[in-house]
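Suppose a colleague, Dr. K., hands you the sequence of a protein chain of 301 amino acids and asks what its three-dimensional shape might be. Before reaching for any lab equipment, you can write down a predicted structure in token form. Begin with the sequence itself:
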Amino acid sequence: MDRNLLTFLTIAETGNITAAAAQLHITQPTLTKRLQQLEAQHKCRLVERLPRGVQLTPSGQQLLPYARRIQHEFLQATEAIRSFESGHLDELRIGSGPLFQMRYLASALCKLMSEFPNTSITLSTDLNTTNLPKIREGNLDLMFGTTEHLADDDQVLFLPLTNVEQGILLRADHPALNESPLHPRNLADTKWIFYSDGLDNEELMRTYFEAQGLPAPNIVMRVSAFTLGFQLVAQSDYAMILPVQLEPILDAGRVRLVTPNPPISRKLAGAYLRRSSRQYPIINRLVEIVADATRQAGEPP
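The predicted structure, expressed as tokens, is then:
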């Protein structure tokens, strides 16, 4: 990738000349020279120095999305050539939402490692909002999660593997469980715990309750760890939503995961990867193993 354009992108991302030079492992005078060359090429100022840091000029803001697209295409081209030449990954970087991480990936990765012993694997669990940009930027090779709009990104593929249905997690002897099927009116006064650093699940439940003529759920806690949510629900009258596909791994003596009537929502979930990554056998094989696992569980898309 053109080093002047890369310099511009790094300045835009860090907002600081010193930090950008350090990230690029060059001196500040070298960084300044590259920026000046790019500005001379476009015949305008792209960056404005401030008392603290820098900011893009209006012209710089115009250039930024195109520069990011060029960087993205360059990474795609590099990866496509590398995969064509070798077909081997030294390291497979996977991002996953909690459903795939807790239900399918342990056995899938054991099988994968036996078939590809020369590739190391890094797995991080996070939300789509965090993992999807990493797929686009080349910082992850594969991601498992629910389907999202890709904003016309024709370089990222979504392969559906299963349907995710949201259920409600309650303490095993929660009084709301006396009614079957569970209706949301029995949870009108319940306090809720939400797993997420985003608002998707909260908006989902607000809409769901409103559709039943009920007030919005009373959210008392937000957690970033599923296990903490489980423990809190098991010891209290709190409720928490999570995929019903997790039911087989729960301690039925402590908690119950139920599908209310009417149901909350169903959403496709699967694998995200860049088109250029499809030439790596290890990536295709992992998608195949996880797809087999969802079929064996009776949960195909």
